[in-house]
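Following up on my earlier message about adenosine-5'-diphosphate. Here are the inputs again, as you asked, copied directly from the submission form:
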Amino acid sequence: MSDILAVSSLTKRYGGLVAVKDVSFSVREKEILSVIGPNGAGKSTLFKLISSFVTPTSGEVRFRGERISGLAPHQAARKGVVRTFQETTIFKAMTVRDNVIAAHHLRSRASLAGFFFGTRLARQDEEEFGRSADEILTFLGLSAMRSEIASNLPHGHLRALGIAIGLATNPAVILLDEPFAGMNHEETQRAVEIVRGVRERGVTVLLVEHDMPAVMTISDRIVVLNFGQKIAEGTPQEIKDNPAVIEAYLGVEDESIGL
Amino acid sequence: MMKARNAIALAASLVLLLVAIPFGIQASGRADLYYTLTSVALLSIISAGVWLTFYIGRINIGQGAYALMGGYVSAVLVTRYGFSFWLTLPLAGLFCAAASVLIGLPILRLRGVYFAMVTLVLTEVARLLALALPITNGAKGIVSIPLPGAVRIFGLTLIPDFATLENPRLAFYIMAVIAMVLCFVGMYRLVNSRIGHLCQSLQQNEELASSIGVDIARLRVIAYAISSFLGGFGGAIFASITQSIYPSSFTVADSVNFMLNCFLGGLSYVFGPILGTFVLYFGWDILYSFGDFQLLIFSIILIALMLVLPNGLFSLRLSRSRGEVTQ
Ligand SMILES: Nc1ncnc2c1ncn2[C@@H]1O[C@H](COP(=O)(O)OP(=O)(O)O)[C@@H](O)[C@H]1O
Ligand SMILES: [Mg+2]
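Thanks, got it. Here's what our run produced:
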C-alpha cells in the first residue's frame, strides 16, 4: 500500500509553547489511523496543520507527494484533505439535507454565474447534489430527519451530520476530531460502524479519539502524542504493549485502555 | 409550478407599480407622491445591497459611502465629460464595486461590531473626501446636472430626453420602479440559487464553510461588490433626480437608515428592504405633525417594533415557504 499523506518534522509554536514538536509519520491509502494522547498533547493542532487551517512553524505535510502546508483551508479541501471539527460544527439554521447539499460545493462544475442564471450544467449539478446528499444521509442513518433544522438534532446525530458534511466534499482523506465524544456506548458502537463504512467508501480516515476501546478496535495503526511529541507508533497491539505509552499516557492502570 | 407562480406575482407587481399607482396618482392629483415613491424605490435598491451584506453575516453601516460615490461618479461624468446619464448608471455601479473590492479585501476579515464600526467610519471618510477632492467641487457640490438625455438606436427613440417631457417625475418614477424590480428579481434569484446557499453557509459558520472548500474570502468580496454596486447605482439615480450632489447628500444617518430598512423588513426576507423602506419613509412623514417629538416617537416605535417582531415586518404576513430564505 502506498502512502497518501506524509507528515515530516512538523512543528507548531504558539509563542513560547510548542503545541506540536518535530512530528513525522505517514498515512497509508485507505487505512484508519488514530492519533491519541492526553489533553493538550497537540492532537487538534496536528489536525489543523494537516488540513491547512494552521501554517506550521517548520516542517511540512505532503498529500500524494504534493506539499499542502501553507495552502488556504479551502485549497487543501479541494485537493481532498478535509477536516471535521472537534466541537459540533454544522450550519445551524439550515435543514439537515441543506447542510449536506451545501457541502457538495467542491463537486460543482457550474460557475457562480452559471448557478445564478440556472444553466443546464448548474441544474444538473443541483440534481446530482440532491441525489448524493440523500445517499449520504441514508448511509449515516439520518434520512428520517433530513428536513429538521440542524440545530434541533440530538447530540449523536449532530456528530453524524458533521461526518456527512465531510463526506459530501468527496474527500480522499477525512480527519475526524473526537467524533465519539459525548456518545453513550450504543451510539459509539453505531459510530464505529459508520467510520468503518467511510473507509469502505475508499476514504482514508484520520481519527482523534479518547474512547480507548473504540480506538483499539477500529484502528489499523495508532500514533501517540505527548507534550506535542510523537512517543510511539504502531498497531493497536504494539501500542498496548509499549511501556513508554503506558507510562506517559495510559497510566499504570490497564483498565483505562480497555484491556 | 413554482416558476408559474413567480411569473404571476411579477406580472401583478408590474401592473400595480406601472399602471395602477400612476393611474391612482393621476386621478387624485397628488403628483408629489411620484417623488416620494421614486425615493422609496431607490432607497430600497440601496438597502438591498446592505441586506446582501447581512446575508453573508456582516453588519454594514457604510452603504451611504457608495451611494455618495455613485452619485459623484455619475455627476462628474455627465457634467465634466459629457457622458450620457444612461451610460454613467452602470459605470457608477461598477466604479463602486471596484472600490469596494479594494476596501473589502482588508476589512471583510473583520466580523461583528468591528466590521460595523469600520463601515460606519467609511461614510464619514467618503464625505470628507468629497469635501477635499478637487474633482467633487468641495462643499459647493455639483449642481445643475442635466436631466437624463434621450437614448436612440438607429434613429429609433428608446428613451426620450427627460428635459423635453411634460412630466419628468413620472419618467423618473417609471425608471426607478423598473430598476427596483430588476434589482429584486436579481436578488431573489441570487438567494434562491446555490449562491444563496453558499452565502448562508458563510453567515452561519465561516470556518466550516472553508473546510467544505468554499473560498470564503472570494465569496465575501463578491457579495460586498454586488452590495456596493447597488449603492452606487441608486446614488447615481438620486443625483440625477435632484440634479445635484453634495458631500452631505448621503451621511452617516442615511447609512444607518439603510440598515434599519433591512432590520425592519426582516433580514431573512429578500423583499424585506422594500417593505422596510416603505414603512420607514412614510412612518417618518406621518409623524411630521409631532414637530420636536418626531424623532423621539419615531425611535420609540422602531424599538418597540423590533422587540415585538425581531424577524421584521415580513414575518407577520408571509408563510414560511414564501419569500423566506433562511429556513
Ligand atoms: N491558537 C492557539 N494559541 C495558543 N495556544 C494554543 C492554540 N491552540 C492550541 N494551543 C495550545 O496547544 C496545546 C495543544 O492543544 P491541542 O492541539 O488543542 O491539544 P489536544 O487536542 O491534544 O487536546 C495546548 O497547550 C493548547 O493550549
Ligand atoms: Mg483536541
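One observation from looking it over: Chain B has a mean pLDDT of 89. Hope that helps, and feel free to reply on this thread.
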